[in-house]
Amino acid sequence: MVPILLVLLLALLLFGAGFAVELLWYIAIAVLVLWLLGFLLRGTTAAGSRGRWYRW
Q1: Where are the transmembrane segments (predicted)?
Q2: Which pLDDT tens digit goes with each residue over 26-55?
Q3: CA within 20 to 30 Å of 20's CA: 3, 28, 31, 52, which one?
């Protein structure tokens, strides 16, 4: 009985970790797309040149 419970617990942990890792990949891709859009669509300064694409 104990080995079956350990296998089920291990399967549950691996499923949860796999879901979390996949979710983190989607979040990373979304952040990358937003960063690239901000880089490509940045505004211009008063002099007409492109400003810095970062705020820090």
Answers
A1: 30-48
A2: 989 999 898 888 777 776 665 656 666 555
A3: 3
Whole-angstrom Cα distance, residue 39 to residue 42? 6
User: In Å, what is the CA distance from 16 to each residue of 12, 19, 31, 43, 50?
Assistant: 6, 5, 23, 42, 45
34/26 Cα distance (integer angstroms): 12
The Cα diameter of the chain in Å comes to: 75
Alpha helices in 1-56 (DSSP H): 2-40
Q: Which residues pair with 50 in a beta bridge?
A: 44
Residue count of the chain: 56
| pTM of the predicted protein model | 0.55
- Coil, helix or strand at residue 50: strand
